[in-house]
Amino acid sequence: MNIVVSLFCGIIFGIGLVISEMINPAKVLGFLNIFDEWDPSLAFVMVGALIISTPFFHLFKKKDKPFFAKNFLISNATEIDKKLIIGSILFGAGWGLVGLCPGPAISSLALLNISSIAFVFWMSMGFYVASKFNK
Amino acid sequence: MNIINFTPVSALTGGLLIGLSVALFFILNGRMIGVSGIASNFLISKDKKSENLLFLVGLILGPLIYTFILGGEINILISNSLPLLTVGGILVGFGTKLSSGCTSGHGISGISRFSLRSIIATITFMIVGILTVLIKNIL
């Protein structure tokens, strides 16, 4: 059952990326272009997502277990360390260069354009190299 | 600063769907969605392989369902510079794996949990993203 949930949640997430235009790098770069011609729309993606996910998280985290898994898996990391800061700086730079973050990059593979495919390939290489640092 | 192309309704609608996806995945499967985590763990780890794969397949099916079943139109404008896509892709992959989260993992799931780590990560990548666009405009 949990793989059906995964597929369904992936589809809903992907449609959300399309409707919000988070999938469009030009839209993302417009959102980050606050000092010139600013398109503030994508701030509303975060607002929309958080007003749903926040109450549901806090209501359900107290339950014994999720419906289709043995237990909740919630990150317990609290340390503000160098990896967090340096990783976020590098991610922000890549995001500002191209206008794609991981979710939209993967969703945009559906459009079969060579740019998305190249970006996801190199992003995967980045995951792989960084995983060696995380050990 | 001028405000252009403002589309708050579609952005909010898409955001609500993303929030719904995060909430359902948590309640049913017990995990908070972070796409960089799901994608990188799918590639690197044996744990939850099929669950991660099916989520990624869904992410790709989303735009197809939107186009072919719901009859919507998708416009994307992306750079075709291979060096830029290479550097950007490596930075995004390496950076999100090193900091254990991206726009969804820190920006939505982490902030939903009121995680200070995620709030700091989100502020950091937002500021650096804004500065990167600013520098690109100057050059």
Describe this structure in words.
The complex is a heterodimer of chains A (135) and B (139). Chain A is mainly α. Chain A has one domain (2-133). Chain A is 65% helix and 1% strand. Chain A has six helices and one strand, in the order H-H-E-H-H-H-H. The mean pLDDT of chain A is 96. Chain B is mainly α. Chain B has one domain. Chain B has helices at 8-29, 35-44, 49-68, 82-98, 105-112, 116-138; one strand spanning 2-3. In chain B, helix 2 crosses helix 3 and helix 5 (105-112) packs antiparallel against helix 6 (116-138). The relative contact order of chain B is 0.10. The chains are: A mainly alpha (135), B mainly alpha (139). At the A-B interface, helix 1, helix 2, strand 1, helix 3 and helix 4 of A face strand 1, helix 1, helix 2, helix 3 and helix 4 of B.
Keyphrases for this structure?
heterodimer, A: mainly alpha, 6 helices, globular, B: 139 residues, mainly alpha
